[in-house]
Amino acid sequence: MSRRKTGDFGRWHNKWLKKNATEAARNSIDEWFNGKCEGLVANKTHKVVKADHDVTPYRTYYKYKADILTSSTSTASSGGAASATSNTSGSDKTEASSNNGPVKE
């Protein structure tokens, strides 16, 4: 049942996208999922393939992991500036399908 409904929805969604969204809009969405558009916090986004067909949703899907890049500047006692960059786990974004290169988990 889940596979059939997912297939039905996917076909409807693809038809709707072709009719209602331009190629530029679809590319903009892909850039947003990959953390490559302006106005976002500095991040490194990874696309992870989830392909365990033995558990729900019984299909391959992509999950996006964003590592937030933060940098802080502190002044040393000698008056010089020091800079540090660290990665922290960010938000997860999930998408049913995409054409970008996946990263296997």
Report the radius of gyration as a whole number of Å.
19 Å
Extended strand count? 4
Q: Give the termini separation.
A: 27 Å
Strand content: 35-45%
> Widest sheet: strand order?
3-2-1-4
Low-confidence stretches: 73-89
Order of helices and strands: HHEEEE
* Overall geometric form: flat
What is the percent of helical residues?
A: 25-40%
Rounded mean pLDDT is: 75
Please summarize the sheet with the most strands: 4 strands, mixed
Q: Tally the structural domains.
A: 1
Number of continuous helical runs: 2
Class from helix and strand fractions = alpha+beta
Question: Which key phrases capture this entry?
Answer:
single chain; 105 residues; alpha+beta; 4-stranded mixed beta sheet; 2 helices; 29% helix; flat
Tell me what you see in this structure.
The protein is α+β, with helices and mostly antiparallel strands and 105 residues long. The chain has one domain (2-104). Helix content is 29%, strand content 38%. It contains two helices and four strands. It has a four-stranded mixed β-sheet, with no helix packed on it. Strand 2 and strand 3 (81-95) form a beta hairpin. The longest helix has 19 residues, at 2-20. The two termini are 27 Å apart. The model is unreliable at 73-89 (pLDDT under 50).
